[in-house]
Write a structure and sequence with these properties.
By secondary structure, this protein is mainly α. It is built from eight helices and no strands. The radius of gyration is 18 Å and the shape is globular.
């Protein structure tokens, strides 16, 4: 997986030029966001399972039809798979925070996401709701600094928007 900096430098090289002021400013901004991203990654890693469980519990209350007979979460095994999926999405967001790029989400979540949910006839609204709940529930200073929260929200929003 290429880093943001190498991507910018490679793009300039392919264009047959040295990185220009705009390229360097973009790199500088990315580097300045490193500390808040790492804080967000650390805070999320500390509570990832609890965050996924809370969001999953909230969704199951919001969508009680999911747990009714013939619902997509009509057994404990299926409920655990939904929690696992939420945890997987949050782990990928954690990876994005560490690398400062959406590549983990793009490569391991979003690519093929619509086809999988369509093929399995799974609704995406519960996942979107769980991620929105997580976004809306996170706050500063309880969970992380304002700058770290902005970084966390950016990747959550990126994933949420991919479901539409």
């Amino acid at each position: 997986m290429k880093s943001f900096i190498s991507t910018v430098i490679n793009a300039a090289d392919i264009a047959g030029r040295f990185p220009n002021d705009s390229d360097l400013e973009s790199i500088r901004g990315n580097l300045q966001r490193t500390r808040p991203r790492m804080e967000a990654a650390e805070k999320l890693a500390e509570r990832l399972d609890a965050v996924a469980k809370e969001a999953g519990d909230w969704v199951l209350k919001k969508y009680p039809e999911l747990t009714k007979p013939d619902g997509i979460c009509d057994s404990q095994v299926k409920i655990e798979k939904c929690y696992r999926d939420l945890s997987h999405y949050l782990r990928l967001i954690n990876y994005c925070l560490v690398v400062g790029d959406t590549a983990p989400l793009d490569d391991w979540a979003i690519a093929g996401q619509r086809e999988v949910y369509r093929a399995l006839n799974l609704p995406t609204a519960p996942y979107v709701s769980a991620l929105q709940y997580t976004r809306d529930r996170a706050c500063s200073p309880r969970d992380m600094s304002p700058q770290a929260l902005v970084e966390f929200w950016a990747y959550l929003d990126y994933l949420i928007n991919s479901f539409s």
